[in-house]
Amino acid sequence: MSIRFTAKARRGMVAMTVAAGLALGVAGCGGGGGDDEKPSPQRSASKDSGSKPSAQEGQAETPLAELKGTDGLLLQITSAQRDAGGFVTVSGNLKNDGAESVAIPAQTSGDETEVIKHGQSLGGATLVDSKGKKRYYVLRDTDGRPLTTTGLTTLEAGQTLPVFMQFPAPPAGTADVALQVPTFSSGTIKISG
Predict the structure, then answer these.
(1) pTM for this prediction
(2) Among 41, 76, 98, 184, who pairs with 63 as Cys (CB 3.0-4.6 Å)?
């Protein structure tokens, strides 16, 4: 019995560690002007495992939804995956389609004091299940940090930033939900998995 509990606890710890690692890793990706932001002519499909091009390189993957924001900002949702841990991870790219650099609106963090104190994020995002008449908010860790991309500041013209958000999972029978992010248009996405 204790082995089963230990394995279950270990899976939960791994899930939280991965989520925290993603949040910390993505937080360091915000507009620092480093060398890895410069386009490289050497980028190719061979850099990834196998010969399949990534969604960013080949744009072969059609987004699930495109949410238009202010000043040329565009949020392209590429996946909404239901995970065994009882949550949904929504991933995509935040892009500046405009001709000038744009500050990410502070409203994207939402208005909860606990979330705002951890810096600018996509903590204000929600999933809406209109059939079940429920709204799901971005998950938080035990310190109140949102399980989403953080450290958002500005995007240069044409710059793209990978983003993610984690929510509690709607019931298994619910596949279509509306994603709402403050200052962006709403979009319907299909949850897989």
Answers:
(1) 0.68
(2) 76
